[in-house]
Amino acid sequence: MTKQDADSQVPLLFLVSDTGGGHRSAAFAVSQALELSYPGRFAPVIEDPLRQGGAPARLRWVTALYGPGIRLTPWLWGAFWHSSNARQTFRLYEQALFAPVYRTVSEAVARHRPALIVSFHAMTSRPAVRARARNASLPPALVITVITDLVTPHQAWRYGGVDMIVVPSAAVRTRCQLDGIAPERLVDLGLPVRAEFGAWPAEPRDRAALRRSLGVSEDRFFVVVLGGAEGSGDLARRAAALVGRLDDIEVAALCGRNAGARRRLTRLAGKAGGRLVVKGFVDNMADWLHAADIVVSKAGPGTIAEATACGAPLILTSYVPGQERGNADYVARAGAGCYQPTLRGLVAEISALRQDPARLAAMRAASAGLGRPAAALDIAALIASLAGRGRASAGRALNGQGGTR
Fold first, then answer.
1. If DSSP codes are grouped into helix, strand and coil, which group holds residue 276?
2. How many domains does the chain have?
């Protein structure tokens, strides 16, 4: 690409934080979709104002607690989430813990001079709006929030001062409207996932080839066990129970950042007769989900969005208190999976499903029906339609003024 080509690209700023993996994954999916739909037209930059180098050490320390917190003491995270999920208490938490985000976001806006700012994290929407107001010398930038909690978003997400909010479900849209945000500022496009999650193996022979490429059996009932980016949800114990109690299935445990679970399961894999595959982070998650007969996971929104885009049946075993409450019911009501929080229930459910191909096929079809693999492309189209417009133009484009809680 020539310098002239680069200079003609529309600059975009995507704000994320690596508290979990879902925020960056969603931003990357939209960035990928922009390049697929509008090659060379946009230049999105993904920044983490909560954890990158410019953030003060205290802020980086606070946000680094999220991963160990949801893995080791989810009840404590739940207490924090619920206690901050009100306007007054949220403002106190924000001032005490997250005030530096306003500075780091403002610096990012001044540095990149974006035509449009997209917030993929609850704690960056307000700072983005403030940064736009304080950088009056820059071209006016719209601010869009893309909510990445599937059913029960924290009130920090539900900030009507942005120009538009992309919601992942009807439940979130309703919650935002109850908060007084005008319907014109809400658009239900789904939770964005990368393009490869929607590209299903077309034929049985393609799926067999995919399994061979992953080094797993073509013939055994194949279960993929996940715990999100942090490898939470008691992943190691569940994977070990499945391998130990069901001797004719194969299990892949994808442990993410959970090095302890990976070490424990790696020791077990040597005794499992080739029926247990153990990985940390993988860059081909879509292949694992497409290859699976069933996916076992905590009820993380990103995992649910990716698995349903692949049409994979789900057994959900736990949820992070607060933002993941309701996700298991969301999947179960659609028929795309079920909730089994106990080891006994999990083992019994998989034992029944492997002997009931009709029920498993129905769950797979329901999962595909729940999935929204085109969400990233739809959000990219929205960004393309709004990029470069000023705030006043956006107001006209959205057909009226909305609430600004």
1. strand
2. 2
**Angle between the 100-112 and 125-134 helix axes, to the nearest 10 degrees?**
60
Q: Cα(280)–Cα(98) distance, rounded to whole angstroms? A: 30
Q: What DSSP assignment string belongs to 110-158? A: HHH--SEEEE-STTTHHHHHHHHHH-TTSPP-EEEEE---SS---TTT-
Question: 243 and 330: one domain?
Answer: yes
* Structure tokens that stand for 308 in this block: 């349903």
Task: Transcribe 292-333 into DSSP letters.
Answer: -SEEEE---HHHHHHHHHTT--EEE----TTTTTTHHHHHHH
Judge if 45 and 22 occupy the same domain. yes
In tens, the pLDDT along 75-120 reads 888 898 899 998 888 888 888 888 899 999 999 999 999 999 999 9
Measure the CA–CA gap between 204 and 388, rounded to whole angstroms.
46
* Choice between 46 and 75, residue whose per-residue pLDDT is larger: 46
Do residues 358 and 17 make contact, with C-beta atoms less than 8 angstroms apart?
Answer: no
Round to whole Å and give the CA distance between 147 and 192: 10
Give the Cα separation of 68 and 281 in Å (integer). Answer: 16
Nearest one of 306, 369, 303 to 336, comparing CA atoms: 369
| Residues 150-163 pLDDT 10s | 999 999 999 999 99
Reading the block at residue 156, the tokens are 């920090």
User: What does the DSSP 8-state code read for residue 94?
Assistant: I
Average pLDDT along the chain: 89
Q: Read off the CATH number of the domain in which 339 is found.
A: 3.40.50.2000
DSSP-derived letter for residue 196 is G
One domain, residues 42 and 154: yes
Whether residues 361 and 382 share a domain: the answer is no
Q: What is the DSSP letter of 98?
A: I
10 Å CB burial of residue 115 (0-12, 13-18, 19+) is buried
Query: In angstroms, rounded to a whole number, what is the distance separating the alpha carbons of residues 85 and 66?
Result: 16
Does the pTM surpass 0.85? The reply is yes
b/e map 270-299, b = 16+ CB within 10 Å: eebeebbbbbeeeeebbbbbbbbbbbbbbb
Give the range of the structural domain holding residue 126, as residue numbers without chain letter. Answer: 3-193+374-397
